[in-house]
Each structure stands twice: as structure tokens, then as C-alpha cells.
Amino acid sequence: MIYDSAQYVKRHWHNRNRVKTANGVEWLTIPVVTKGRFEQPIDQVEIEKPWAEKHWRTLELAYKRAPFFEQLAPTVRGWYERADKEARLTDVNTIFLHGIAGLLGSTTRIVGDDAYPASGVKTERLLAICRAAGADRYLSGPSARAYFDESMFSSAGIVTEWMNYQGYPEYPQLNGAFEHAVTVLDLLFNTGPEARRYIKADQANLV
């Protein structure tokens, strides 16, 4: 589920990710309009153009020597060409989410949170969405611990699992020592069809 009715947070992962370059790890950020727009939901965030061509040049420079860059470059470049036509951050993120899921062979259905009736805020809203979807298990990233009330889910009979991004299997990377917290494109460009195996191994890192 794409939970884009949640509040946009500056300097978070909503509009940026990290790439591993010859000069170290760098942020790759999609510029967005925030001036005068306080507490806006993610699905209302607009992009400041241009941005896509600069992103692509950064990726090309960082990964052109990666074993599977040449093979995957046309596909990823195509995502950027489509994304460059979009005005909203959520539409850009959706393009990349579907594209990456496809390369990884995922058949999980991806829908927006507007597909389910829900009310309330924070944990209450998430619980309403899970109930509407008929979920019995909820997987969350660790940053949600700051506001998430796990007891509400437990009382509703829904098991909460937390992703642990540390300690997952290392894979061959360019430019020195292994870095965990980088874009999944790093994994794809470096391992190609083996990327799915690393992702599956990472599923053990649930707490």
C-alpha cells in the first residue's frame, strides 16, 4: 500500500535516496515545493523542475562500470522519462515503485491508501486501513516507532512486524567498503537477476 495521505516530512526518504559514488555516498533528491505549504500530505507535494536529467547523469556516472548497468539502463532511463512528465511527487514515486517491483519479480498488488475507507490520524488511521483491507499482519519501517501505538494493533488481532535494515546480506558493490543504506538501484545495477535472492534473504530481518 502506498500511504501517501500521510504528512510529508522534509529531509526524509519521501523525495530522496542515497547512491554510492566514487566520492562516497551522496543524496539524490527530487526538489519539491514546500514554501508556504505546511503539513501538506505526500499526495499533494509538487515537484520543482528540472530534476530528472540531473538524476540520471548522477546514476550514470556512479554506476556505468557496474556489471548490469548497460543491461538495465534503458529500462531505468525510461522510468525517468515518464517521471519527468509528472507534477506530483507521489506519481513519480509510484512509477519507480512499480518498475522496481517488476524487475525484482514481485507480484504483490500495489494500491494507494485511497482504495480503502479510513478515518483518524496516525495509528488510528493505519488500523482502519488494515481492517478495511482484511489484513492480519502489518509490516512497517523503523521510523514509524516514534508515533506508532502497537498495542492498538495487538488489540485488533493484527501482528506488527518491523523492518531491520541492518545486517542484511552484503553483495558486490563498486567504490570501496559495503554500504547498506543506499538505493535498491545499487543492488540491481551490481547484481542484476540475483537481486531478488538478496531481497528474499533480507526478509529474515523482521523483528
TrEMBL record:
Pfam families in the record: WbqC
Name of this protein: WbqC-like protein family protein
Organism: mine drainage metagenome
Source organism phylogeny: unclassified sequences, metagenomes, ecological metagenomes
